[in-house]
């Protein structure tokens, strides 16, 4: 038992020391490494203290000494177990009466404090945490108006309200790209207006020629295609092209099979790239006749099926991690939208926190 504790301590020290060093290869700044070390140290400390409740120490030692059987501290486990739980959040909507007598809704969200999710230690990052985390990084958000709302949510987390007011005006100039350099944390964010999947494919081709890739890439489109082209098979074809162009960015792409399933996944390092899913469409609330006709549940499911068939998502062996705006918007519900397709900030704020926590989990992966 004594020996077990010592071994655990040494293991924890090694992880805290070496993981951030390994991450240097991932173009992370010193601050981010410090942040990761801190986060890792805390989660390991919590893990070590809680582990007796979940497994007996002897089980852990025997499994960690035989490297073939996974232990509960195995990064792969953390990833496989916690990543899929990230979207298990709840929304809380409360009607309140203000002093002047008007009624309004207070909307909030969170991860449940009990059940499997609570074991993952997800955390809402505050401004300073998020700034440390993103210090020195290049974030690209590309897509349609959903992507714009995600970019806005991310900036809103990092900037104070004064700067946010200025950003809001610029970012909402319709249908244009936007770039901001947050100089105090050296973060650069590019919003790329890419209403069609083919625009995203073009962006991937462009990025391939850059000397370095974005540290975080979030992209998604579909609503424009649904409204203006309204042809799910055509969407499916362009998703397949996009997948090809994303795969060609990956460092290990020669090891990927035709169907995108990773062979030798031990050496595969997935990039922090995300796919932004489409929101729940509430037909009756859409603001034009054309939208009501074309953007209904049936169209959504046809497009969704094409997305799945393209196997671009991590869950089917592809490169992109899904930020599931559909499940988030559905959970938040009709009271969270005014036009049946763009949702309140609370939905996109949750998506941003899911993304940041996914990045934290992914960083453990380099063990
Ligand atoms: C009443 O208060 C709410 C928030 O406190 C504010 O948004 C709203 O504009 C006010 N309405 C009137 C009529 O003053
Ligand atoms: C960001 O990193 C730079 C240099 O690495 C550092 O000087 C600066 O203080 C950091 N800013 C924040 C907000 O952490
Ligand atoms: C996006 O792609 C469409 C169709 O391929 C094209 O007409 C349009 O100019 C592109 N838009 C941008 C912003 O690149």
UniProtKB/TrEMBL annotation:
It is found in: Membrane. Keywords: Membrane, Transmembrane, Transmembrane helix. It comes from the Eukaryota. GO terms for cellular component: Golgi apparatus; membrane. GO terms for biological process: xylan biosynthetic process. PANTHER family: N-ACETYLNEURAMINATE 9-O-ACETYLTRANSFERASE, PROTEIN ALTERED XYLOGLUCAN 9. This is Pmr5/Cas1p GDSL/SGNH-like acyl-esterase family protein. It comes from Trapa incisa.
């Amino acid at each position: 038992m004594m020996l077990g504790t010592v071994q655990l301590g040494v293991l924890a020290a090694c992880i805290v020391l070496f993981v951030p060093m390994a991450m240097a290869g991932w173009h992370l700044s010193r601050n981010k490494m410090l942040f990761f070390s801190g986060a890792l140290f805390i989660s390991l400390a919590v893990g070590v203290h809680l582990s007796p409740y979940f497994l007996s120490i002897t089980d852990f030692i025997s499994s960690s000494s035989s490297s073939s059987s996974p232990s509960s501290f195995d990064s792969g486990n953390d990833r496989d177990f916690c990543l899929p739980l990230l979207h298990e959040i709840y929304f809380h909507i409360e009607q309140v009466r203000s002093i002047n007598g008007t009624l309004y809704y207070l909307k909030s969200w969170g991860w449940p404090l009990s059940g499997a999710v609570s074991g993952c230690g997800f955390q809402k990052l505050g401004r300073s945490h998020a700034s440390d985390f993103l210090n020195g990084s290049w974030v690209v958000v590309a897509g349609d108006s959903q992507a714009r709302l995600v970019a806005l949510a991310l900036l809103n987390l990092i900037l104070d309200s004064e700067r946010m007011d200025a950003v809001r005006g610029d970012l909402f100039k319709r249908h244009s790209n936007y770039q901001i350099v947050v100089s105090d944390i050296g973060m650069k964010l590019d919003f790329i207006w890419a209403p069609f999947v083919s625009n995203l494919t073009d962006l991937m081709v462009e990025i391939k020629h850059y000397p370095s890739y974005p540290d975080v890439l979030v992209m998604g489109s579909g609503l424009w295609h649904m409204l203006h082209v309204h042809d799910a098979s055509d969407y499916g074809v362009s998703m397949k092209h996009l997948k090809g162009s994303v795969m060609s960015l990956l460092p290990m792409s020669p090891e990927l099979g035709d169907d995108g399933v990773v062979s030798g996944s031990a050496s595969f390092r997935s990039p922090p790239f995300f796919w932004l899913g489409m929101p729940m469409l509430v037909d009756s609330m859409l603001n034009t006749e054309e939208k009501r006709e074309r953007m209904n549940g049936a169209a959504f499911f046809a497009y969704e099926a094409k997305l799945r068939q393209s196997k671009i998502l991590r869950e089917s062996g592809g490169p992109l991690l899904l930020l599931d705006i559909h499940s988030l918007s559905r959970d938040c519900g009709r009271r969270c939208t005014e036009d049946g397709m763009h949702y309140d900030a609370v939905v996109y704020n949750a998506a941003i926190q899911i993304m940041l926590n996914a990045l934290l989990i992914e960083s453990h992966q380099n063990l």
